[in-house]
Amino acid sequence: MKKLLLATSSIVAFAAGAQAADLGVPRSPVASAVVAPAFNWTGFYLGAHAGYGFGRTTPSDAGLSFPMNTSGGLVGGQIGFNYQINQIVLGAEADLAFAGISGSRASLAPQVLFVRTSMLGSVRARAGFAVDRALLYVTGGLGIQGGSFATNGGAGAERYTRTGWTLGAGVEYALTQNWTVKAEYSYYNFGTRTLGPIYTGTLRADVHTVKIGVNYLFSTGPSAVVARY
């Protein structure tokens, strides 16, 4: 019996000593879950775009109007800046495109009228809502058109540059930390212009464009993965 009591006492003492020793060992920190931070849209960007334009141009003279449909392709580039506040993204963008948006129609026989938009540009504000790597935005500002008007029996093309306004909307998506792609619709209104000195009368025009583009964002945002301890 004495031997059994001694053995039991030894086991209890050994277990208590081991537990006391464990109390003095500091616990190692446990890493929290690894998370990917939201994409940061803040920064300057530079890019290129291509698309299609269509609209309506109406030459008028001596009380007669000759509306015609116009259409054609365009290709150009853009530069801009974004600043993100929570999920709101504010910014500005300027773009310039070479275009071949043209149309023609017969007027008073045997005369044929020709119009062409050879350049489209804009300087616009942008405001959007970011959902991580997707940005939904609206845009608007100053529109710029380089165009020409001519007739088959005239003295050549009358070229002009004029300003108007533009409004649009689009969606942009970040493929990587720096490369984004976008799709955008814009409407340009250039009002009515008085022709001269080659031709008389007035010219009214508007243009719709649908564009796809790619941007390089010069951003120093967070890395793709951050581990917090």
Provide the descriptors you would attach to this structure in a database record.
mainly beta, Porin, eight-stranded antiparallel β-barrel, 9 strands, elongated, disordered N terminus
The CATH architecture assignment turns out to be Beta Barrel
Major sheet description: 8 strands, antiparallel, barrel
Q: Please report the number of helical segments.
A: 1
Could you give the count of β-strands?
9
Query: What is the SS-derived class?
Result: mainly beta
CATH-defined topology: Porin
Strand order of the largest sheet: 1-3-4-5-6-7-8-9
Brief synopsis:
With 229 residues, the chain is mainly beta. It has a single domain (43-218), classed as Porin (Beta Barrel). The chain is 10% helix and 64% strand.
What does this 3D model show about the protein?
The chain has one helix at residues 2-23, and strands at residues 43-61, 64-65, 68-85, 88-106, 112-131, 134-151, 158-174, 179-194, 202-218. It is elongated, with a radius of gyration of 34 Å. The protein has a single domain, classed as Porin (Beta Barrel). The chain is mainly beta and 229 residues long. It has an eight-stranded antiparallel barrel. The chain has one helix and nine strands; from the N terminus they run αβββββββββ. Helices cover 10% and strands 64% of the residues.
